[in-house]
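Annex B. Sample input.
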Amino acid sequence: MQAVLEVKKSQWVEIGGLADIPRQGARVVRTADGDIAVFRTVDDQVFALRDRCPHKGGPLSQGIVHGHKVACPLHDWKIHLDTGLAVAPDEGCAARFPVKLDGDRVWLSLTAEPAATVTTD
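Annex B, continued. Sample output.
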């Protein structure tokens, strides 16, 4: 399921219900500044990252979610959903976006958070 959004970057936008995002899957939100992948973990936590792997730009939304990481479908880089950081020994960071739940509704900020600077396993 995809949505095309044309709103100011500073606004929060409702992107649908939690059930609209498959467990261990993603939904793509298209914006003028690029696609954002919104992920749902098996424990119903929701995270959002720029839909580009920091390695070669692969679509993270098409990767496999396991735990709180996603594996890029191109070269199997693992990316932490909570920080956007690549799992060591790989290096790089996908931009992350704030997400909040209001009941079962998912809200996304179109303003990226500051980049994480520390690598984690």
